[in-house]
Structures are given as C-alpha cells and as structure tokens.
Amino acid sequence: MVPEIGLTSKDAADKWKTRRQIQEEVLRQNDFISWLLRGIATKRIRVNEPKAPVHVLENHIALVTPAIFNDFLDKNRLKKQIYERRAGDKRVFTLLQKEIEALDIHQKGMNGKNIVSVSVEGVRSRSELRVYLLNRDCFPSLNNFNANPAIKIHL
C-alpha cells in the first residue's frame, strides 16, 4: 500500500468540488456555528494551538472531531437532551454533524466520507487528527488567523 501524501490546504481546496459560499450571517443562524464563532471570538475555543479543537488552514477551517461537537453538546445541555432523544442507538454528535453537512460548506474526502485525516508535524513529533473541513471563505470573521503550516490534509 502506498502511503498517503499530505496536501496543503490550497491543494485540497482545488480538489473541492463544491465551492459554495454562504454568507456568514446566514451560517450564524445555526446554533453550532454561532457557538463556534462566538467561542473563537471570545477565546473560549482555542485555535491553532496544541490540543486545540479548531485549526485554521489556508482555505479550510478544521474542526477536530468528535471533540468539538461533544464540547458543544456538553456546554448546551438542553440541545444535548434534544439530540439524545433523536439519536436512538446512534452517537449523539453524529446528528450535529448531519446538520453541518446540510449547510453544504464542508469538504468530503476522496473516499466520500465527511471526516478527513490530517497530519500535524511539530518540531519533535508527528500525529494524526480526524477533522471536519469547512470552507474558510464562508467565515470572513476568521480572516485575522494565519494558516497553521503544521497541518497537511489527507483526502
């Protein structure tokens, strides 16, 4: 088996078939997106740091899954109860992911799956994360963040 070669965020965006741009104001109507952007703005959600649940790339926002979705549900007990009732035998965070998928602002991997692997290469170590990739163009409020050069996408 040939090892996967890491792609930059720009290369991955070039492969992205759906380049839909949605106004950030419209996205903020989604409870999760609103919570995410508010948390980033107030620094309650860490970005581009070791163990951060969010990483900004050249053309993507990488959400570490399931951590970021579980964090939202843990901080929003009422929403969690609603999702738990609807989830049945499924994991609760998967319903939240389905809502994000419906917005059509995420990128699927080449295998058609919604979760993508990325490699993080630091000075002393290398690790892999499973992330949900969102189109950065949809989030102009995050333009003040530099792209994290340590992350390579594996589509």
Short description:
By secondary structure, this protein is α+β, with helices and mostly antiparallel strands. It has helices spanning 9-15, 24-27, 31-41, 67-75, 77-87, 92-102; strands at residues 54-56, 60-64, 106-107, 116-121, 126-135, 151-154. It is 34% helix and 19% strand.
Outline the fold blueprint.
Blueprint: H1 9-15, H2 24-27, H3 31-41, E1 54-56, E2 60-64, H4 67-75, H5 77-87, H6 92-102, E3 106-107, E4 116-121, E5 126-135, E6 151-154
Notes on the structure:
By secondary structure, this protein is α+β, with helices and mostly antiparallel strands. It has one domain. Helices cover 34% and strands 19% of the residues. The protein is built from 6 helices and 6 strands, in the order H-H-H-E-E-H-H-H-E-E-E-E. The chain has helices at residues 9-15, 24-27, 31-41, 67-75, 77-87, 92-102, and strands at 54-56, 60-64, 106-107, 116-121, 126-135, 151-154. Strands 1, 2, 3, 4, 5 and 6 form a 6-stranded antiparallel beta sheet that branches. Helix 5 (77-87) crosses helix 6 (92-102).
